[in-house]
Amino acid sequence: IATILLKNKTRKTDNRRLRTYFLKNHAAAEKAASRIGDLEKQIRAIKPPSTLVMVEQDKPRATHVMHRGDYLNPGAAVGAGTPPVLHAFDPSWPKNRLGLARWLVSPENPLVARVTANRLWSQIFGRGIVVTEEDFGLRSQAPSHPQLLDWLAVEFVESGWSVKQLLRTIVTSATYRQDSRRPAEGTDPHNTLCGRGPRFRLSAESIRDNALAIAGLLTHKTGGPPVYPPQPPGLWRQTGRNEPKYKVSTDSDRFRRGVYVVWRRAAPYPSFVLFDGPDRSSCHPIRSRTNTPMQALTLMNDAAFVEAAAGLAARILREQPSASIEQRIEHAFRLSLARRPRSQEAAHLAEAYRQEKARLQARPGLAKQLLSSLSAVPLPAKVDQRLEVAAWLHVATILLNLDETITKG
Q1: Torsion, Cα of 165, 171, 176, 179 (10° steps)
Q2: Residues 80-138: pLDDT tens digits?
Q3: Is the CB of residue 82 less than 8 Å from the CB of residue 89?
Q4: Three-state DSSP class for 224?
Q5: 78 has which bridge partners?
Q6: How confident is the model over 246-291, as pLDDT tens digits?
Q7: At residue 239, does pLDDT exceed 60?
Q8: Stretch (H or E) spanning 271
Q9: Cα distance between residue 226 and residue 253, in whole Å
Q10: What angle do CA 252, 255, 261 make, to 5 degrees?
Q11: What percentage of residues in the chain have a pLDDT greater than 70?
Q12: Under 8 Å CB-to-CB from 334, ≥6 apart: which residues?
């Protein structure tokens, strides 16, 4: 060490030896250096989420019209521009994606605001003012309420393109707050004239989110990487290929909203597909709404919906610990359907609960077997309470399977 200190110029190896010697003779410094090393290892282990992005070239490449589509036979050179039949492109805007975005949202362009307002209306009412949401051209259908569409588009632009403000305007209107029941058979079956409130089945993602919200399990965390809720095993496996493994989320990510569910085009999430969710191999501006027996079987047997039913059963007992059967049924109805049950409905569910509880009491190990696969759901620890959860799970499954539960309106 003394020899190194006498040198006029030290090397990297000398500096490392001096640092090691210093740390050995100063315990506090050595402890701090060790802590710094551990933190640096943790930082290097962090892999932030990334995504593919487009980057503008410093010098745009030349683009030509290809004669008869032959890329080996280029014609005249062309540059970036907009259709002259529409509003003019401001010369002060850059001729790139930023300039195109400014041209699209220009107040002189009515099309973007009209298309956006129409799609938001369709999401709320189940049907757009212009039914052909994907086509506003010559082959589109005429709007059922043209002045309303114009007014919504102007409101949207003048509010600073605020989607929240436009949605609030629509849902607080007298049109939206109407009763959704049809006054008579054959009277405006598609509700084109908006003579009643909207009534249509929820989207695939919303059906799952709604069930989790009723059960009190829905996680409201936003952002981050995709999540892996339970699905039938083996769906990601293909013969002769080294496929990625589907590792089911075990923490609160298991119950996050459907928009965060991982999506694989070769094997999309099965319950979403059964409820008409697209596989995203092509663009689907409008989703179809079909009714099949597989949908009812999914709501009864799919692992995600069984967990939701167990969560609802536990919530009923947790929030109504000393209530009667009828009071618990009324509470469950209000959680699921936002209304009180009719006398016939309450009697049917009470009888279903008593029959299920008698069946579980006759076979003591059945309740334990039923709840053993629901470790992700917070359930009571006491044996008698777990028997109650298993019995109320049957009632919760019925409620979550009702057409009224998965229908908006």
Answers
A1: -170
A2: 889 888 899 999 998 888 999 999 999 888 899 999 999 999 999 999 999 998 888 88
A3: yes
A4: coil
A5: 63
A6: 899 988 899 999 999 998 888 889 999 999 988 888 887 888 889 9
A7: no
A8: helix 270-274
A9: 9
A10: 110
A11: 98
A12: 340
Q: Which residues pair with 200 in a beta bridge?
A: 408
Residues 336-349 have pLDDT tens digits of: 999 999 999 999 99
Q: Tell me the C-alpha to C-alpha distance, in Å, between residue 371 and each of 80, 94, 217.
A: 62, 62, 16
* Coil, helix or strand at residue 54: coil
pTM score, two decimals? 0.79
As a whole number, the mean pLDDT across the chain is 89
The pLDDT, as a whole number, for residue 373 is 83
Give, in order, the Cα–Cα distances in Å from 123 to each of 119, 129, 214, 264, 376: 6, 11, 21, 25, 33
Q: Rounded to an integer, what distance in angstroms lies between the CA atom of residue 9 and that of residue 34?
A: 28
Residues 6+ apart with CB under 8 A from 102: 90, 93
Q: Phi and psi dihedrals of 339, rounded to 5?
A: -155, 165
Q: d(Cα 164, Cα 175) in Å, to the nearest integer?
A: 18
Distance CA 336, CA 312 (A): 9
Could you tell me whether strands 200-201 and 407-408 are parallel, antiparallel, or unpaired per DSSP bridges?
antiparallel
How many CB atoms are located within 10 Å of the residue 337 CB? 16
Q: How far apart are the first and last CA of the chain?
A: 83
Angstrom distance (rounded) from CA 401 to CA 294: 12
